[in-house]
Write the structure tokens for this entry.
Amino acid sequence: MRRFKEYTVNQYLELLKNMKIDREIKEIHLHHTWRPDKKGYEKASNKESVIYSIYKFHTESNGWDDIGQHISLTPSGTVWDGRDVNMDPASIKGRNKNALAIEMIGNFDDGYDKLEGVQLESLVKLLKGLFNIFEGVKLIFHREYSKKTCPGTSIKKEELLDMVNEKQYPKEISEWAKDAYEWVVREKISDGSDPKGSVTREELWTMLYRYHQKQYGK
Ligand SMILES: [Zn+2]
């Protein structure tokens, strides 16, 4: 029987980083399963059997060689592996070459499931990781090349990309420190990274020095 493995997003990205991938990945395709929806997945006592039934449908009804997607993202924020990453997916007709396909489990058309909480956080983390691993890769929604609404009418590509590209503050910045954070980054006194990290003496000297230079020149 075809088996599948479940990972956290971090585990999966680690695995991918260490994998020998001998085809070029230029596009990440995003889909939703529609069926099963989130409830359908959540109520299954054996989660692997849900992925297996997608596999059965893809191989038996659709006649594909294997499950269509490389990655399935669950409502609890974990991912299941799928088709070998070294193989093209069965994802979007005419665009499968150089693609990596993700199926989000749920029905994200307006009025049905919401992409939120851990599933949304995991998707953002996953896409961030994939953008890092496959430099220059583009995010493609299924509906851009199809009449379908996939990955769901409630999901807006621009909003998702803003989250992936961190237009907001890094999550760890305390409310009371935000003005100072904006200022040190704007004034190039610090790059703003690692907000809770401790400061060495030389780093403090340098920050004071940069500030002094700004105020008074050399
Ligand atoms: Zn789709």
About this structure: The mean pLDDT is 94. Residues 175-216 form one domain. The first strand starts at residue 6 and ends at 7.
